[in-house]
Amino acid sequence: MLPEGHAEVETTVRAVLRDVLGLTDDRVAAFDATTPLFGALPELDSMAVAGVLTELEDRLGIAIDDDDIDGETLESFGALTRFAQDKALA
Fold this sequence. Notes:
Blueprint: H1 6-21, H2 25-29, H3 46-60, H4 77-88
């Protein structure tokens, strides 16, 4: 069973990726848990990572420290969504 708020966080992660990276709704809607992000999406470079994380902080009302981020955080859509859920639903 998914925790309460799971769908809202996932929707927010999709919206942030769409808005910050300039992706189409259809492209973002097709993302599943295994969709690779960093290194696979040319739009998601190191500068865009900062924008994505800042926007997640703003929209979810969370704080993200540099120590929170590692190579796996942006590895896939599922990893990023789990990270955001852990922060927002804690």
